[in-house]
Structures are given as C-alpha cells and as structure tokens.
Amino acid sequence: MATMDIIKYAGGMPANFLDVGGGANAEQVAHAFEILLSDKSVKAVLINIFGGILRVDTLATGVVEAARRTNIKLPVVLRWKAQTWMRARRVLMDSGFNFVVCDTMKDAADKVVAAARGA
Predict the structure, then answer these.
(1) What gap in Å lies between CA 103 and CA 11, rounded to an integer?
(2) Residue 27, phi then psi, degrees to nearest 5
(3) Phi/psi zone of residue 96: left (φ > 0), alpha (ψ -120 to 50 degrees), beta?
(4) pLDDT in tens, 7-26
(5) Are 101 and 92 in contact (CB under 8 A)?
(6) pLDDT in tens, 49-75
(7) What is the pTM of this model?
(8) Which of 3, 39, 54, 75 could form a disulfide with 44 if both were Cys (CB 3.0 to 4.6 A apart)?
(9) Could you write out the DSSP letters of every residue in 34-93?
C-alpha cells in the first residue's frame, strides 16, 4: 500500500495494485504482469519489491518473460532492496528492453509518474 501512497504523493494515480507473494516463480510473475497489462488504464508500471522472501532475480526473469510475451510498450520502472539485486539488474539490462531501475521509492515514483504522463 505504501507504493500506491508514494505514487499519489508524486502526483500520479495508481490504476491497480498487485502482490505477487513471496513464493512466486518466474512463470507466475509473467502471468501477474499479463493480468496487470490487461487493464487499459495502465500507462506505466512500477514494480516495487522489498525482497526477503521473493528473490528479485526470479522477479527480473519473470518481468523479462512477461515483456517478451506481451510485447510491452509501456514504461516499466523497478525498485527493489534485496540480496540478489545485482543479478536482477543484470537480467534486466541484458534483456534488450528499456527498463528503468531506481534505488529509492521516491525516485521510482517520480519516474513512473513522469513516464505515465509521457514526459
């Protein structure tokens, strides 16, 4: 819920909230992404993970798989704090997609709101 709050604080309007849960695998993350993208009011995607249960490299693999499956055109901003974040960042950067990876929630919220507005 803090993710939705900080998007509002940054001047945006969250369209949806999805919790993939701690035991999600790459396939489940990809499916969750497809559900999220089925909402036509979504203009950008912010993925904010407080890692500890879900490995963020698993999340990154799922995000890349989802991007491939859906041929996503929307901006995707990611922010996480977790042990495997360096591996996750490499998965995203090697994917060929233009993901935006942020270090703080505020930076991520500002960037996703700007992206949703087309800035």
Answers:
(1) 19
(2) -65, -45
(3) left
(4) 999 999 998 887 776 777 77
(5) yes
(6) 876 677 788 888 888 988 888 888 899
(7) 0.87
(8) 75
(9) HHHHT-TT--SEEEEEE-SSS-HHHHHHHHHHHHHHHT--S-EEEEEESTTHHHHHHHHH
Q: Show the tokens assigned to 91.
A: 């998965």
Question: In what helix (H) or strand (E) does residue 101 lie, and over which residues does it extend?
Answer: strand 100-102
The Cα–Cα gap between 60 and 41 comes to 24
Determine phi and psi for 45, rounding to 5 degrees: -120, 130
23, 40, 78, 108, 114 from 102: Cα distances, Å? 24, 25, 6, 5, 14
* Token pair for 46: 């912010």
Write out the two tokens for 117. Answer: 């507005």
Pairing of strands 76-81, 100-102: parallel
| The two structure tokens encoding residue 90 | 């490499």
* Structure tokens given for 38: 């089925």
